[in-house]
Amino acid sequence: xxxxxxxxxxxxxxxxxxxxxxxxxxxxxxxxxxxxxxxxxxxxxxxxxxxxxxxxxxxxxxxxxxxxxxxxxxxxxxxxxxxxxxxxxxxxxxxxxxxxxxxxxxxxxxxxxxxxxxxxxxxxxxxxxxxxxxxxxxxxxxxxxxxxxxxxxxxxxxxxxxxxxxxxxxxxxxxxxxxxxxxxxxxxxxxxxxxxxxxxxxxxxxxxxxxxxxxxxxxxxxxxxxxxxxxxxxxxxxxxxxxxxxxxxxxxxxxxxxxxxxxxxxxxxxxxxxxxxxxxxxxxxxxxxxxxxxxxxxxxxxxxxxxxxxxxxxxxxxxxxxxxxxxxxxxxxxxxxxxxxxxxxxxxxxxxxxxxxxxxxxxxxxxxxxxxxxxxxxxxxxxxxxxxxxxxxxxxxxxxxxxxxxxxxxxxxxxxxxxxxxxxxxxxxxxxxxxxxxxxxxxxxxxxxxxxxxxxxxxxxxxxxxxxxxxxxxxxxxxxxxxxxxxxxxxxxxxxxxxxxxxxxxxxxxxxxxxxxxxxxxxxxxxxxxxxxxxxxxxxxxxxxxxxxxxxxxxxxxxxxxxxxxxxxxxxxxxxxxxxxxxxxxxxxxxxxxxxxxxxxxxxxxxxxxxxxxxxxxxxxxxxxxxxxxxxxxxxxxxxxxxxxxxxxxxxxxxxxxxxxxxxxxxxxxxxxxxxxxxxxxxxxxxxxxxxxxxxxxxxxxxxxxxxxxxxxxxxxxxxxxxxxxxxxxxxxxxxxxxxxxxxxxxxxxxxxxxxxxxxxxxxxxxxxxxxxxxxxxxxxxxxxxxxxxxxxxxxxxxxxxxxxxxxxxxxxxxxxxxxxxxxxxxxxxxxxxxxxxxxxxxxxxxxxxxxxxxxxxxxxxxxxxxxxxxxxxxxxxxxxxxxxxxxxxxxxxxxxxxxxxxxx
Length: 905
Prior knowledge:
Layout: H1 3-12, E1 23-30, E2 42-50, E3 57-62, E4 66-67, E5 78-80, E6 91-102, E7 109-120, H2 121-126, E8 131-137, E9 144-152, E10 201-212, E11 218-228, H3 230-254, H4 261-290, E12 315-322, E13 329-337, H5 351-363, H6 374-406, H7 410-429, H8 434-445, H9 462-469, H10 474-481, H11 492-526, H12 533-578, H13 583-612, H14 617-625, E14 628-634, H15 641-655, E15 659-665, E16 674-678, E17 681-688, H16 690-693, H17 698-701, E18 706-714, H18 719-727, H19 731-754, H20 766-781, H21 789-800, E19 804-809, H22 814-832, H23 839-847, H24 877-882, H25 886-904
Parallel strand pairs: 13-19, 14-18, 14-19, 15-17
Antiparallel strand pairs: 1-5, 1-9, 2-3, 2-4, 2-6, 6-7, 8-9, 10-11, 11-12, 12-13, 15-18, 16-17
Helix pairs in contact: 3-4, 3-13, 5-13, 6-7, 6-12, 7-11, 8-12, 11-12, 13-15, 19-20, 20-21, 22-23
Region (Disordered): 455-488
Keywords: Hydrolase, Lipid metabolism, Membrane, Transmembrane, Transmembrane helix
GO molecular function: phosphatidylinositol-3,4-bisphosphate 4-phosphatase activity
């Protein structure tokens, strides 16, 4: 490329959500000539490119249709993205058409050729004012039919002039909408907006618009959308964690030791089913590892088994608004298909219904297994997780303590003892739970040769005792008999075992205090005389010898506690699995699938918000003090399969409450997030470059975990919701909205309690938020059909509380795009003074699909009147109608025979 074009490209490159296009230009026609003097033209411009090496005309894009004028000013321009091969020698051909007839239902149009012109990119770049005025001529190059102005465009420049000449909406194909500009000022420094790391986004699409404000000034809008590699990265990380967790659980079941035949057969059955399910996760991970190509899952792939963990159509969308008098603003939204298990289907409903039904059935399980409530099961998993986390830490700190003793280092010895004491106290505290005691009793009675003498109700929990006390069903009585109390079992033995850990630690502490005290007194007695190296070595050896047996005793006591606690908690998990095979594992798989899709979107949203708010100290304070609000806008109906999708989505979003984020400094060029944890608790480590990391508050830099507050508000808006409201049931939607309103109020109360009043921008006052919440409450209580006011209020509250916005429908296509574009135009109207007469035009411009497949590649641009040659399907309609009824088919056959007979006669 020439030096001139390189300078031009460098000037345009700046940080945004995705790379900025290399070249953009707009077009305006003047004095167009028509065959009939009185006829008003309806024109559009088709843009074609001729590459220097190929000399082949390639159709690139088109503008919108501007109706009723001979001097059309097009809002749609041309953008060449960074990866597009454009050079100074590249030729651009502009062909102007007059639209005779435009179908409102299809993209087919009847058009006639007016004129064309050609220029090179170098001509435009090197022009004095970066503007060309070209003559439009007929196909033979003779007659002049008007002129066309081409203007190089740079986002961020101020533009003078009145917007009165804009007469229609603008539409674009694949790249960008561009506006004319009259200023020659560069954009360096003006448009340097927060961005994601370039490796996180793929295939960016950019559109630009200009719209008039209420005071007749121009505002400029850049709308950007991109895929993200997190669509696949997060699910793969999550599946890998599931595999490790399930393998560890299977091993814990095998380590239960010898069991009575009944329990042993149950264990074998559970392990067999778990191994089978484990292979499903492993196969899925292997298939995802082979995936290449697109960074998102399209809607047509939502039923594919190998991609069921991947979110549908996950995209990042940003609107950047540049106003003449207001500060530039960014509005981000994540668009994604509703998290749901499409491959498994919705014949029996979604997770919300399935989990409730499963839990009710599990309560009625007979004597073959022991019922533990979901809370107790979750507690058992937490205890096992604490064991796996704390045991190696305690062992490591104990070794450090001995190492400090061998080096005769008092300061190091004190620090090592402090860390050992803290971790050991956490370890001991983890087992102060009635569940561990009752599980040990149940496991004891499951051993072979156990003589049952005195049946008693197990002490799972006070709640469980109340449940059993009020049960009259025979199966419940049998289940009580299945956990007897053995007369020879010493219930206090467990207390002594885990108490020995604390006693052993106290012995270590006492010995360290004694050694340090003796060392201090020895130093005072020796005065100024420095001890020799030999004396230090002897003292270190003496310290080590005195501490070593105490540390070994501590490790032994801890090992005994770990063995017993692991076995008892594994026995609880055995009951959970045995009571519901295979439904339990299938529900776990379904929940993992839905959660994986939801988590991928959440990670995207958090990273975008973090990058955007790095310079906002109020937001960063809110992030570590209160947490982040994550608001999902659902557009699913409560009819048929979509009701099941909504149930899946509600559970998946609710499960995001168990996710916490941690921001760390990146140690390499790989900035992808790291996921750790287990199904009940995940930590997402977001990596930032050193310069960005330094901008964070000290609390976040020190590793404070950041809480998430996900809320979902759903309003069905399609024709299926009409059926649900008239003939079906909307209780599901009403319950979800009411439950999440309470969660939103909880977040608001935390926010007002912990944050200073001046943390929000001046126009976002507390009273305003309180009024919006009350209005939202009233709208949720009102029995109004398709009450989209709920959506608007929830979105407004989310933005005012610095939250992350999501918009979801079944596939994140039609309904989602309609909602996002309406929201964007409403923001322009309410926050940026969009001229009221241009609201609909701006909306049509953002929703336009005129150039997305509107023109056929087989059309010759200069053959006069052309029509879309797409085959019509109207001839197939009668056959389809005949298939509806056998009676109609018979009538059709009789009439056909009659016509044939009449013809031959």
